[in-house]
From TrEMBL:
<dbReference type="InterPro" id="IPR050763">
    <property type="entry name" value="ABC_transporter_ATP-binding"/>
</dbReference>
<dbReference type="InterPro" id="IPR003439">
    <property type="entry name" value="ABC_transporter-like_ATP-bd"/>
</dbReference>
<dbReference type="InterPro" id="IPR027417">
    <property type="entry name" value="P-loop_NTPase"/>
</dbReference>
<feature type="domain" description="ABC transporter">
    <location>
        <begin position="4"/>
        <end position="231"/>
    </location>
</feature>
<dbReference type="InterPro" id="IPR017871">
    <property type="entry name" value="ABC_transporter-like_CS"/>
</dbReference>
<comment type="similarity">
    <text>Belongs to the ABC transporter superfamily.</text>
</comment>
<keyword id="KW-0536">Nodulation</keyword>
<dbReference type="GO" id="GO:0016887">
    <property type="term" value="F:ATP hydrolysis activity"/>
</dbReference>
<keyword id="KW-0067">ATP-binding</keyword>
<keyword id="KW-0813">Transport</keyword>
<dbReference type="Pfam" id="PF00005">
    <property type="entry name" value="ABC_tran"/>
</dbReference>
<keyword id="KW-0547">Nucleotide-binding</keyword>
<dbReference type="InterPro" id="IPR003593">
    <property type="entry name" value="AAA+_ATPase"/>
</dbReference>
<dbReference type="GO" id="GO:0005524">
    <property type="term" value="F:ATP binding"/>
</dbReference>
<protein>
    <submittedName>
        <fullName>ABC transporter ATP-binding protein</fullName>
    </submittedName>
</protein>
Length: 307
């Protein structure tokens, strides 16, 4: 049985389609990522799966329970960390945790082993109000609160948005440890680089799923030759490269542009001479292996099939 089964789920807000005919299966024990930009429909799908929103169409089950018919039973079985700050800012760290435990009819002591490793980092601040914690600590507390009733399936909606790079890495390390204990986890993120931390990912855009696979299989879908290119005038460089006859796509990735070319015949020498002809200086070009972000960018810009 799938841990999460989503069949042809759709949801609109008035005329605005937020999720359009999505089907996905998440296996027990998977750390599964929903990757997509703002507005892709991730939060809407999460709310449907944790029984906070009714779908317009389709069917979904979590841990074998129907998200509409069995919503009461299901609420005991899922842990949910919403995207926005979900804690009580005027309650202390410990009071927040005790509150969430009580709501689910349990105690901190009963399930402490599950959160121990994460909570031990918060314990020195247990009397501090949640509103006064740093972003990374708030996120750890919210995770503890989502775990305190020992859920079967964990839903984390953009847990790392607005959190610094070190805390992001720590958070993913924690998720992997929880996952190693067998906890099925669905996590959403707008950060494409986090995809590689998941067992499988679904890439979402404008309410639809563009690709579902392991991170390495998604990366393997990128078949065009790829180059990293840099020159003195980045703005003019991107402009000129996008107009070049050999260019398939060209995007800024940190200090370099990533240039995908149409055929394997195009070499870095040809690109270099084109750029010299266009008066570029300090040119650097080298072939690179595509990463998952390159594949996602390519998927996003491909024309989508119409219904
Ligand atoms: N309550 C609402 N009323 C009207 N439109 C909404 C509502 N909530 C979301 N939408 C719209 O539905 C679409 C999907 O939004 P959703 O929040 O599910 O996406 P998301 O991927 O989670 O992005 P974000 O990170 O911005 O929340 C967007 O176009 C959004 O503007």
């Amino acid at each position: 049985m799938d841990a999460i089964s989503i069949e042809n789920i759709s949801k609109s807000y008035g005329d605005i389609p937020a999720v359009s005919d999505i089907s996905l299966s998440i296996r027990p024990g998977e750390l599964f990522g929903l990757i997509g930009p703002d507005g892709a429909g991730k939060t809407t799908l999460f709310k449907i799966l944790v029984t906070l929103l009714l779908p317009d169409q389709g069917r979904a089950t979590v841990a074998g329970y129907d998200v509409v018919k069995d919503y009461k039973a299901l609420r005991q079985l899922v842990g949910y960390m919403p995207g926005r700050f979900s804690l009580y800012p005027d309650l202390s760290v410990q009071e927040n945790l005790a509150f969430f435990a009580t709501v689910f009819g349990t105690t901190i002591r009963e399930n402490y082993p599950l959160i121990q490793e994460i909570y031990s980092q918060l314990e020195p601040f247990k009397d501090r109000r949640a509103g006064q914690l740093s972003g990374g600590m708030k996120q750890k507390l919210a995770l503890c609160c989502a775990l305190i009733h020992k859920p079967e399936v964990l839903f984390l909606d953009e847990p790392t948005t607005g959190v610094d790079a070190v805390s992001r890495k720590e958070f993913w390390d924690m998720l992997r440890k929880l996952n190693e204990r067998g906890l099925t986890t669905l996590v959403s993120t707008p950060y494409m680089d986090e995809a590689s931390r998941c067992d499988r990912v679904a890439f979402m855009q404008t309410g639809t799923v563009l690709a579902v696979d392991t991170p390495s299989a998604i990366t393997n879908r990128f078949t065009k030759p790829l180059f990293a290119v840099r020159a003195a005038d980045t703005y003019q460089l991107i402009h000129d490269l996008r107009l070049a006859p050999f260019t398939e796509s060209c995007y800024a990735f940190g200090e370099f542009l990533h240039l995908a070319v149409k055929t394997a015949v195009v070499s870095d020498r040809q690109i270099g001479s084109y750029l010299l002809d266009h008066n570029h200086r300090n040119i650097e070009i080298h072939p690179i292996q595509p990463g998952i972000e390159d594949t996602f960018m390519a998927l996003m810009t491909q024309p989508q099939p119409t219904a």
